[in-house]
């Protein structure tokens, strides 16, 4: 197998954790006979912005379109470029224009990772959040009138299409089908948001009819959030709209320890466009330059990429190595250890 991978380290610790993902990938690729052709990309970074006045060249889409996947570190350097410019100028363009309509985030509690929730041990928490990534509450439809006056009015619309909703539900049902518990939780708020959310529930019921082997429950987003903290063991796959999924997919990993562990995949499951794999965390200016960033989120994201490309054995080997190093060390300071980014990355690569 041979794949073309665009490698965008981006800003801050993106530049420190990306080499560790490439180190792990190289070992996995050799062991499982996978040919990875990398195209390193300097843009989609705030350094590039400072030189060119934009985050990416005009032909960015043409440059990336032929890739099988994009491996992404982090974008953002608030000291030089405002965050809405760096994010809308890079990552959000990829998500929208490459129709990466699934944002997939695994939530798992590992041995050796201090859990902020009392009484939970490794294995108790193991689920996926599937977030709709292209429509819903995140639109530019709306505006302000009477600005700055007492009569100021602000409107921002949500957009839910049948096409967009059904495809994310279908993906979530199929993911649930591939797992042992065959359970899907549907995030809703049909009591309060009385037009779009009852409709979202109807679409979930319609899809459920095609998957009789999957049990589903619908939960309002408020109590669902509480249960992430109080009863995280009851979840298997959780599907949510763009906004609800955004919040849940930060809350989930937060319940399992440090943000330095959480990976994510932005998927165009049909492969019409490249999918993008990135850690949940950002560029972490507060720790950049010290070589202490936890490389696991980036390495796990690289493993998700191999899984998506069909290299499941390589994915499993990478994940096993991560699991062992988390349990036995070396660990970076966010996990209570003293190891550097490089030391932890080397230990994981050695185990693969
Ligand atoms: P952040 O995720 O960069 O950092 C939050 C906190 O977590 C910091 O204290 C940081 O030191 C810590 N942290 C993050 N990753 C870590 C790791 N691998 N190991 C150990 N500790 C880690 O979020 P923040 O500070 O809100 O944003 C910084 C910049 O990153 C901003 O410009 C923001 O827009 C951007 N950002 C980019 C994202 C992306 O590219 N997907 C996602 C989130 C933020
Ligand atoms: Mg978020």
UniProtKB/TrEMBL annotation:
Residues 4-348 form the Isopropylmalate dehydrogenase-like domain. The keyword Manganese applies. Its EC number is 1.1.1.83. InterPro entries: ICDH/IPMDH, IsoCit/isopropylmalate_DH_CS, IsoPropMal-DH-like_dom, TTC_DH. One of its GO terms (molecular function) is D-malate dehydrogenase (decarboxylating) (NAD+) activity. Its cofactor is Mg(2+); Mn(2+). Pfam families: Iso_dh (PF00180). Gene3D superfamilies: Isopropylmalate Dehydrogenase. It is an enzyme of class 1 (oxidoreductase). Keywords: Manganese, Metal-binding, NAD, Oxidoreductase. It catalyses: (R)-malate + NAD(+) = pyruvate + CO2 + NADH. Belongs to the isocitrate and isopropylmalate dehydrogenases family. This is D-malate dehydrogenase (decarboxylating). It comes from Nitrincola iocasae.
């Amino acid at each position: 197998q041979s794949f073309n991978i665009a490698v965008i380290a981006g800003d801050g610790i993106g530049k420190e954790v990306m080499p560790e993902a490439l180190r792990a990938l190289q070992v996995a690729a050799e062991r499982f006979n996978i040919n990875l052709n990398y195209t390193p990309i300097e843009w989609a970074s705030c350094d590039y912005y400072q030189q060119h006045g934009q985050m990416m060249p005009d032909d960015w889409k043409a440059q990336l379109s032929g890739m099988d996947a994009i491996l992404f570190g982090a974008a953002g350097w608030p000291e030089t470029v405002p965050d809405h410019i760096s994010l809308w100028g890079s990552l959000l363009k990829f998500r929208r224009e490459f129709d990466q309509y699934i944002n997939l985030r695994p939530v798992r509690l590992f041995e050796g990772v201090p859990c902020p929730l009392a009484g939970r041990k490794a294995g108790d928490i193991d689920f996926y959040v599937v977030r709709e990534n292209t429509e819903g509450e995140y639109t530019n439809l709306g505006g302000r009138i009477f600005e700055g006056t007492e009569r100021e009015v602000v409107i921002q619309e949500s957009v839910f299409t049948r096409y967009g909703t059904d495809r994310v539900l279908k993906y979530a049902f199929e993911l649930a089908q591939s797992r042992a518990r065959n359970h899907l939780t549907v995030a809703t708020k049909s009591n309060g948001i009385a037009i779009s959310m009852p409709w979202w529930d109807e679409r979930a019921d319609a899809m459920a009819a095609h998957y009789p082997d999957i049990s589903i429950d619908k939960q309002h987003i408020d109590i669902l959030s509480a249960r992430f903290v109080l009863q995280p063991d009851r979840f298997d796959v959780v599907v949510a709209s763009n906004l609800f999924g955004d919040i849940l997919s930060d809350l989930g990993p937060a319940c399992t320890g440090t943000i330095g562990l959480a990976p994510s995949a932005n998927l165009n499951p049909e492969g019409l466009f490249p999918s993008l794999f990135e850690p949940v965390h950002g560029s972490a200016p507060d720790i950049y330059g010290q070589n202490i960033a936890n490389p696991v989120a980036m390495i796990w994201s690289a493993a998700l990429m191999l899984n998506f490309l069909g290299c499941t054995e390589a994915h499993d080997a990478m994940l096993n190595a991560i699991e062992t190093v988390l349990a036995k060390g070396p660990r970076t300071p966010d996990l209570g250890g003293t190891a550097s980014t490089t030391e932890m990355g080397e230990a994981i690569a050695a185990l693969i």
